[in-house]
Amino acid sequence: MRPARTSLFHGSNQPFEIYQCKIEPSDVGEVLVKVNLAAICGSDLHTFTGRRTSPIPCILGHEAVGQVAESTDVTDFNGNTLNEGDRITWSIVSSCGTCLNCTSYQLPQKCETLSKYGHAQRSLPRDLNGGFAQYIRLQPGTAIFRLPDSMADSESVSLNCALSTVIAGLNVIDIGDSVVIQGCGMLGIYATSLLRYYGCGVVAVVDVRSDRLKMAKNFGATHTFNLTEVSPDQINDELLALTNQYGVDLVVEVSGVASAFTDSLDWLRIGGYYLTLGYVYPEAVTIVPMDKIVRKCLTIHGSHNYHPRFLGDAIEFVQETRHQYSFNLLIGNTYPLAEIDQAFQEAIKGNQIRIGLNPWE
Ligand SMILES: [Zn+2]
Ligand SMILES: [Zn+2]
User: Fold this and answer.
1) In which residue ranges of the chain is CATH 3.40.50.720 found?
2) Overall pTM surpassing 0.85 (yes/no)
């Protein structure tokens, strides 16, 4: 049995424990994966800082990329055989495929018996279920995709959370031509480049950090607004000028800031769409002037995680646009697993879009 180094989360703001275990053989339908690179996602930070709860102890981490570590009979999402050494990415949940949410409602990410990587209590050495470890064991019901050789780990690591989530959200609304994106983290940057790829003429990004807004320009933003310099009303004036006084077709919320919702109600045109992806913790509460939603005939759409087919779309999108956009630059400093405490402290500062973890350094 081969050894594996893992990191255990013991509670909010507690140091991680580096824990060595021996890997037990996989059962039928499971796939052992050697993790090449993992990234600290915003929801890992929500868990770490206590904004949302997680069973403890657990191995955090769900944005990850790796290689099939042993021969397997499991096939990928497209039905192709998986071989030892194949570089893969995988859906962040495993789902049953038979419950109502999986079938009639087409929301397998909300499966009644789902298991989510990086969020479940572990019983080592059976459960290697998080990405911040040398190995992760994928369960039956996980959608697995092979990665093109040309795509670097740093371009692929956040596809299975951030990018797929954005693609899934945009798939269920009318996008239109003019969009405002609230929040310039990983989801905001991906949303910016995607909406330009989809042909939007106005893609405006709102944030409070000028360094991130500068980055958004490199990923296709046509306009940027820094909320420390301009008020929501001033932004509204500019948006009206850009849209013949109509207002924008769509606002995409990926900031997690509750007040962002009310800011945006003036920016939208009559019949516009609001897509929220960022309110993933229970404290996201705000007072809403409901009449604006009704009188403007707005559609509010929430979307969480994604149907696995959108992970396939995410791979295709990066493959097609990787020469136009430097997605590899979205992963900043990469730390060895033994320095995961420092990695989290750096991620909390927010100076880089994503912090990487290399479990093999
Ligand atoms: Zn995530
Ligand atoms: Zn199900």
Assistant:
1) 173-302
2) yes
